[in-house]
Amino acid sequence: xxxxxxxxxxxxxxxxxxxxxxxxxxxxxxxxxxxxxxxxxxxxxxxxxxxxxxxxxxxxxxxxxxxxxxxxxxxxxxxxxxxxxxxxxxxxxxxxxxxxxxxxxxxxxxxxxxxxxxxxxxxxxxxxxxxxxxxxxxxxxxxxxxxxxxxxxxxxxxxxxxxxxxxxxxxxxxxxxxxxxxxxxxxxxxxxxxxxxxxxxxxxxxxxxxxxxxxxxxxxxxxxxxxxxxxxxxxxxxxxxxxxxxxxxxxxxxxxxxxxxxxxxxxxxxxxxxxxxxxxxxxxxxxxxxxxxxxxxxxxxxxxxxxxxxxxxxxxxxxxxxxxxxxxxxxxxxxxxxxxxxxxxxxxxxxxxxxxxxxxxxxxxxxxxxxxxxxxxxxxxxxxxxxxxxxxxxxxxxxxxxxxxxxxxxxxxxxxxxxxxxxxxxxxxx
Length: 430
Known about the structure:
The chain is of the alpha+beta class. It contains 13 helices and 18 strands. The strands form six sheets. A six-stranded mixed β-sheet has the order 6-5-4-1-7-8, sandwiched between helices. Strands 9-10-13 form a three-stranded antiparallel β-sheet, covered by helices on one side. A three-stranded antiparallel β-sheet has the order 14-17-18, covered by helices on one side. β17 (about 400-405) and β18 form a beta hairpin. α8 (about 180-200) packs across α9 (about 210-225) and α10 runs antiparallel to α11. The chain starts with 8 loop residues before the first helix and ends with a helix. It comes from Flavobacterium zhoui. Its EC number is 3.4.11.9. It catalyses: Release of any N-terminal amino acid, including proline, that is linked to proline, even from a dipeptide or tripeptide. GO terms for molecular function: aminopeptidase activity.
């Protein structure tokens, strides 16, 4: 792994929080992700399932975590099952976790090789009444591929039909949404790497540069600072491309006078950051671009202030909509008649700002969190308003990552990344 080893105390704490919410005499199982094939012998780079990583720190394929807090013997309460490493594997694939190394990473003392899993699981099933299965219930999830976790659930239900079934996901949705201090440090590291990439970019951008050249500059800076790369597929959208919300082709030339919307950020140790900035290709905003830009910035700043314990996500978005409506009126993009006659289910402002303002962030860019429950301290949210004007050939979005504080102002993890017009223009023309 490119990242520095994470203190295993984080994963010990995470497991303790999870097992404290398990039913009596229950077992929970977590599987690694598959390595997904492309064709022939080609595969996609391995990306670990965030839940097993959150609970163990194990960051390799073909791994299983078993938690059984009421097991008859202490050594059975936490168990890891790993692909057995060998000299041959070390030569052809590189280092894999040994049992000793797995203890260092996870804090779990009982480590077996995978062939022993079914036998040991059978023994655990004879002492348990319930199994927690780990289904994907994220509100944005659309899963068409059968995952390793899904195959396990299918196998387990056929093998042990008499056991009760419980869900890990509701527990993890709540636990993962509130970050430990170590997690906040890792997210901050991802934000800091993102800052390095953005600062590298500002003097590089000039008329006729291509979107893919910008992407190359960013990935260079991210990887040289121990990131695996982008936390999500980067959006580098010049001119009218910015009005396509998930534009990812990144293959166009950037012309003088246009803006570039950059929704790009680094990961670090599987933790995400999520930044958006909008910059002028020529190094200077036009008067109109500046007016729209500052309107978006004001909405972002006002929205950020609302991120406090007890705030409800739905009401928060209603209030942000009111602020955006005022800004759009000031820009002449809508008028009072538009507001008076608006559809409550699709307010007038939605013509120019059609997406949400915030989402949870952490191990996943769109992280776990139950949106019907109030915000809590140490949750991390994005704040990302935008105004998109196809008729004028540009769109502007600005986005920072914010920690909800127990009291006082929310903490901006991207506070050092340039965002004011004057600073961006100065750095682009340095």
